[in-house]
Amino acid sequence: MGGFRVISKLVPARSSCRAFSQAVLLRDHNARPNIRVRNHRSASRPLESSGQTYNAPRQAGGLDTPKEDSEREEASAIRTKRLSQPSISTSAQRQSGGLDAGNVDHQREETSPPQPKRPWTAPRKATRDKTPNDNLFPPDFRSVLRSLNLSSPIPYLTADPSAEAPYAYHEEVTVKVFATSDSGHGVGLGRDNWIILVPTVMEGETVKARVFRDGIGFSFAELVEVIEKSPHRVEAACKYFGRCGGCGFQHVEYEEQLRRKRAMVERVYKPLLEINGGVTVRPAIPSPIQYGYRTKMTPHYEQRRAWMPLTNIGFNERGRKTVLDIDDCPIVTKEIGSAYKRARGRLLGSTNPTNVLGATLMFRHSLVLADAIGRRTPPTQVQPMRNCDSDAPKKLEPLPPPIPWPPASSHPIAVEESRAIVRDSINGLNLSYPAFTFFQTNSSILPAFLTHIRTQLRSAITSYGLTTLIDTYCGAGIFALSCAPDFKRVVGIELDPQSLQAAKKNAADNNIANARFFTGSAERIFNFLDHDSVLPNPDHTAVIMDPPAKGSTPSFMDQLLRFNPKVILYVSCNVASQVRDLEPLLKGPEASSSTQPAPPNYLSQGRGKAHSELYIGGTRVDLVGDSKTTVKPAKLYSIVNIQPFDMFPQTAQLENVVMLVRNDKFACYVT
Question: Where is the composition biased (Polar residues) (predicted)?
Answer without folding.
Answer: 47-56, 83-96
